[in-house]
Task: structure prediction
Amino acid sequence: MKTAISLTTAFFLATVTFGSIADEQRPDHFKGQKATSLTEAIELFRSNNQKLQQLMQGELSPEAMVEIHQLTYTLENALEKIHSETTELKEVLEEVHLGSENMDFAKVKQQAKRYLDTATTLVK
Result:
């Protein structure tokens, strides 16, 4: 039992030690472009996916890898914005759903407009 604990402790210390060394050797990271709206996020998502697809057509070079690395930051930011907006969209749709169950005409009219304004941005 003591051997298992000692091995676990040694493994943990090695991971922490080598992990922090590896972090120190990583290159500076890029911030990527951030979207302030769903429309911007979708545009960044589309354009950067096109760039990634173009880069994948040829041989991968060190330059291409750097460009891909940079693209991933913007793509991650765009996906994060899309996710937060669609999470909110799901909540608005639930309000439409509940309003329709309760025959709350005003709520459905208001929330359906909010829902459709955002949803049409996704499917343009």
